[in-house]
Amino acid sequence: MRKVSRIHRISDASAHEYEKSVDALVSAVDKRMTRRVEESGLIGPNPLSVMYDNHANHGSLLVNVLKFRDFTLLEQILPWVINSYTSRGFALEYFPIVLDQWKQVIAEHLSAEAAGEILPVYEWMESVIGELYREISQGQIRVIPPHEVMDEARKREVDQFVQLLITGRHIEALQFLRLRVTDGESMKEYYDRLLVPAMYEVGHLWETNRITVAHEHLATSIIMRIITYFYMDIVNSEHTKGKVVVTSSANEYHEVGARIVADFLELDGWDVIFMGANTPSRDLLVLLQEEHPDLLCISVTMANNFSIVQKMIQESRALAELQNMRIMLGGYAFTYSTDSATKMGADALIPSAAACIIKAREWWEEMRYA
Ligand code: B12
User: Fold this and answer.
1) Residues carrying CATH 3.40.50.280, the chain
2) What pTM was estimated for this model as a whole?
3) Which of 110, 206, 247, 336 has its CA 20 to 30 A from that of 330?
4) CB of 83 closer than 6 A to ligand 1?
């Protein structure tokens, strides 16, 4: 596949203009596509709201791609977009049509300079759709379902657990883990090798339209109960290290990853303040000023939230009382691309909850003797 990163440069001014105009671009595309899809079969059995979500998500993803020049992110997420929408009955022809509408509204709304820089990115998307769809259909590209890197025994174990989650058998799901988790070490091991891959598989089932958002909610609610059970039973440890705030970013509704990070840190002796999902940046800054943590961990699952996180980090860096606070980033969004992370201003991007503990310990040693 031709790489978009090799074909284009975007200036700050153009990225900024796209960001400033994105709401107007989205409404213009909504309007044009509403006329276009009526009785066309382009969006299958889906209500128009699913298409509007696609336009809004496209706009906010592109804001981030252009702002961070993170073309790897675009290259990695495009197969996911095609896969998840065609699985729900969107026609493949929808994509060239909607991209053409985006090109037209960009040419109408943005300056000639900005449009001149941004349109080739859309032309690149148009040029790779057919090829991507073929590769997805032939099983050559999939959004890394964890099963592919597991041995058969582990794959079976994850599948069994997933079945319990999506069919709502919460007692059996808890029992499944209780048989395996007996202390902090086995908790970390089984969260990593069973619970996390099971949730990724739940996502894969949703992406390929084999379960609904309701099943996704059901699985999450069972996982939350299980995590709470082991929190009460195992985590509750003595504080031997500094204070850490763990949160999902603003606009981020995924919180399981952040919660696992929080529990692993607490198990390791940190004094943890866990905020959960979608913490508004301004309110988080107030709390950080009150609490003066040594460490802030931010979890990001949706790449659309990168610029929100960058802004929050910049604002916290400007506050005198937070000068010694280290900032760690992590989350599923960075499995698509790590390129934006370096520009977001954190001290480190860490791939997993287990690796978070190691980095946090290293920092704690430095902080103690500083
Ligand atoms: C459950 C779920 C939801 C729930 C979340 C509920 C909740 N209370 O958390 C709900 C229904 C709200 C939801 C909503 C959406 N979701 Co959702 N969701 C999931 C799902 C199935 C599981 C998430 C999860 O719990 N994972 C398990 C945790 C433990 O994994 P993790 O977050 O990666 O964390 C690990 C590491 O990343 C790391 N880590 C995480 N944070 C941090 C932070 C630090 C500092 C460090 C060091 C490490 C670290 O440690 C963890 C353990 O090692 C995922 C599938 C997936 N692949 O994750 C989809 C998924 C993330 N969702 C997706 C989508 C599209 C959506 C929606 C847009 C549509 C929808 N499905 O409803 C909305 C968007 C909401 C929003 N604006 O945020 C897509 C995203 C695809 C993409 N292109 O980015 C996914 C990948 C599903 C898929 N395969 O298509 N979702």
Assistant:
1) 238-368
2) 0.95
3) 206
4) no
